[in-house]
Amino acid sequence: MKRHADDRTGLGAWKGQAFLSIGRALYLGPAGDNSPHAHHAVQVCVSLATPFRLWHDTGPWYEYDGVVVSPDVRHQLDGGSGDLVLFYVEPEGRHGRHHSRARSNRVWRLPRTMVESVRETARRITSRRPDPESLSNAFEELMASAGFARESARRLDRRVEESIARLREFPRDRRTMLDLARHAGLSPSRFRHLFRRDVGMSAQSYIVWLRIHDACAAIARGLSLSEAAHHAGFSDASHFTRTFRKTFGLAPSQIADRLTLM
Predict the structure, then answer these.
(1) Which of 101, 89, 91 is nearest to 152 (CA)?
(2) In a domain, 141, yes or no
(3) How far apart are CA 1 and CA 9, in angstroms?
């Protein structure tokens, strides 16, 4: 019998630790409440012991030990009482561009060997209090364990790469499509085509993702939710919360006090 989203039991607060850097995020611990959602990041989820359940929009709930959720797939997670490793990678980022399945638009099960490799790396992380450098190194290991290799590199158009660099440098600057196209030396229609072709989403959607990152980084530095929202270019805290919930399925207040920058 098919089970739809929200068919979950026993979910509560997100009690683990979250880590954030440019283009990637990591969560270690039990999964809490989350609603059906989609995000542009590639998501990897691995259990440290007991299987978890995942629903996505083309099928019922299934049990997994490890799974990859491709970009923009609507899904929902039920981790039960076990600890999980969750990490998110932007498809157009350094790791995502080299992942052979980053744009397959589906959910796929991680092979057992990859699951065990991710578990081993995660246990090393949780066995001590890591510093930012060791966390970054551990994330690189997690990427490799989950198959984020470089053998199938996809190069972005130089003008798109330059536009992404500008957006990363000035995430709070609400540039119009005309501004971005002019800086790239392209017509707006050509710029829209190239950006969506190479990145997989519109420039405006990409700006929203960068603002989420910028706000989370501000929270990690000690700013309040309202201060972080304004700092990142959101109109107010409610706007940031709505966007965050739509992206990750939970409110930033549920995870803010557990957020650390890598």
Answers:
(1) 101
(2) yes
(3) 17
In the predicted structure, residue 111 carries a pLDDT above the cut 90: yes
Region 172-192: mean pLDDT is: 85
If asked whether residues 88 and 123 sit together in one domain, one would say yes
| CATH (domain of 132) | 2.60.120.10
Q: Quick check: is 4 in a domain?
A: no
Kindly write down the DSSP assignment for every residue of the chain, as one continuous string.
Answer: ----TT---S-----SEEEEETTEEEEEEE-----SB--SSEEEEEESSS-EEEEETTS--EEESEEEE-TT--EEEE-TTSEEEEEEE-TTSTTGGG-TTTTS-SEEEPPHHHHHHHHHHHHHHHTS---HHHHHHHHHHHHHHTT--STT--PPPHHHHHHHHHHHH-TTS---HHHHHHHHTS-HHHHHHHHHHHHSS-HHHHHHHHHHHHHHHHHHTT--HHHHHHHHT-SSHHHHHHHHHHHHSS-GGGTGGGEEE-
At 84, the amino acid letter reads L
Q: Domain boundary at 117, 145, 173, which?
A: 145
Question: Tens digits of per-residue pLDDT, 44-98?
Answer: 999 999 999 999 987 899 999 999 998 888 999 998 889 999 988 877 665 665 5
Co-location of 166 and 52 in the same domain: no
* Domain ranges, residue 111: 17-145
Query: Are 137 and 163 members of one domain?
Result: no
Does a structural domain hold residue 163?
A: yes
pLDDT, tens only, 88-104: 887 766 566 555 454 55
Q: Is the pLDDT of residue 176 over 80?
A: no
